Structures are given as structure tokens and as C-alpha cells.
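Q&A log
Question type: sequence-to-structure
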Amino acid sequence: MEMQKYIDNIKLELTGGVLELELSDEVLAQVVTRTLQEVQRYIDSTELITVPFASCIDLTSTKVSSVSRIFRTEGYTGDTATGGPTTVSDPMYAQMWMAFTNGGTMYNLNDYILNYMSYNTLLQLRNTTTTDLAFKQDRQTNKLYINQGFDKPASITIEYIPIFQSVEDVKSDYWTDIIQRLSIAHTKVILGRVRGRYKQSNALWTQDSDEMLAEGNDELKTLRETLRVNSQMIYPMD
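Response status: OK
Response body:
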């Protein structure tokens, strides 16, 4: 949602389209931006990017908040050093073809099950000594270090949580709604403090500063508790 839409929704919520709001659009834009900074650490919506494989990948050009997972794009076998595809296939896929094209005999099936058990044991041994695609994200240098336990793939797919530079980058309906509700609550707190800066004891009418401040603080407390309880901590914590 565009920034102006957030501003229009805040003004409609607090004025009903009838009253005049004391805060300018520039101030409201700052409130929305501040809210995005607060919500950033809770957002768990991920994006995917496929890049050439390397043991150390520079993430400077990609605005990455946290790397969640890493996937191979060609499976375990990958490509050969010459760039051509390997002839090695998944053993269970190969056996499925053999089992149904051998005239119904079980000889090759039993033999291949034993081979597959040996193959699976070898994979477990490799994972014991080194974990394939184990990774470490260095936030200081924006580098991603990936361990290669099996064949080297030509490319790698990275699932990551992006750094949102502006509210326009947030596409999720859920997080758009959270940002808008938090922005309204923050605006109510600001208005409550502005309107309550000076009070007239002999005035015929009074400002709603106390009600506005209390209402904003209650909404902030409720929304922050909702974010805390529903937080999906699927990404590594430093």
C-alpha cells in the first residue's frame, strides 16, 4: 500500500473527514515510517533468490534482514566440472523404473535395496562429519558462508527475510493491516500529548487529550502483545 493511502486512512480514522487534524502529512509519514521500523523485526514473510553457488556469497546488493533457508536447485548431483549434467540419478527413482520393467522378478529389487541402504548410510556418515548447506550469515560484512557437503551445485536458492526500505515494499495484507493499526495508535498518542500540552480550567469546552492518549496507549499495548505472542522466530538470532 502506498504511503499516501496510510496517511489518508489515519486522517479518516481520527477526523471522520470533518475535523481538521493538527498534524501535517509529513509528520504522519514519519509516524508510518517509524512504525515500519518497529514492525520490521516481527515480519516473517520471505522471498527467494537464486544465485551462482559460492562458498562465500556477497549479499550487499540484496537487502537481506535474515537468511532463513538454503536450497539446492539441481538436487545432490548437480553439474559436472565441465558444465554438463551428470548421469547419476536418485537411487530410489532408478529402482522404481527397474522394478516395473524387469518382468516382475524380485532379484534386482532385493539387490538394489541393499545398495540403497549402503547409500543412505554413506549420506548419514557425511552428515555426521559435515552438514550439507549449513550456513552462517555475517551481518557486519553482509557475507553468507555456505558449507558444501556433497557435489557442488551450479546455483543455490536462498530464502530470506528482506529489509523493507519503505511501506510500499510490504505486500502482505496482514502486515499492511498491522502497520496501519499501529500507525493510528501512535498518532493517537502524539495527538493526546499535543492537545494536553496546555489546559484551560475556565474554558467552556475541553480537548479530548486524556481520552486520546489513553486510547492510543491501550491500542499500542494490545498490538505489541499480539506481535510478541504470534512472532514466528524462523530465522536465526544473533
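Response note: The chain has two domains: 3-43+164-198+207-229, 47-162.
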